[in-house]
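Deliverable D5.2: sample structural annotation.
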Amino acid sequence: MAPAQIRKALDDGVRVVDARSVDDFAAGHLWARSMSARPKAAGLHVDSAACSRQSFAVIDAAAQHARHDAEVGGYVAAEAAAPVLDAGRAVVAALIGTNGSDVVFTTGSAHALDLLLGSWPGSCTVACLPGEYGPNLAIMAAHGFDVRALPADGDGRLVVDEAAAVLPADPPDVEEGHDSTVAALGWEG
């Protein structure tokens, strides 16, 4: 998203905790600022499963919400948090060019994948590298997806030329409205 688009979102009423962080993001994320916003790591994290470490602001907000939940109950705390969540949806929507009502916050990537695959219409076939994360494969299987292995080299990386030859020979079924995606990939619907 361009700095002008971020500024417009702010002018339209989207609120952020620290507008300087939006400017930093738009100008090219500042690594030192990012690192100082998080607790010091106890070591080298190699087991984060594609999750980023939470910032002090996130930790504080989660603790504040948990405290409020304990004081007034879950439903009241959830209602009180709604404006903050709505503002977050508006920011994400502005970043990706959609409406806030199209943005769903989940408990994590497994929950998001479960929601996506649970609402997937049509063909239930997915192609992925042989080293795909096991829990993702379990979610795919639970939703009846046929998992096909993509060609990989000895290091587990996609062999693009082989994939380009294999995928058009057995393309996925295409639902109405996805024709442009299929055309871009070189498949015929």
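Annotation notes: The mean pLDDT is 75. The CA atoms of residues 41 and 53 lie 9 Å apart.
The annotation will be released with the project's public dataset once the embargo ends.
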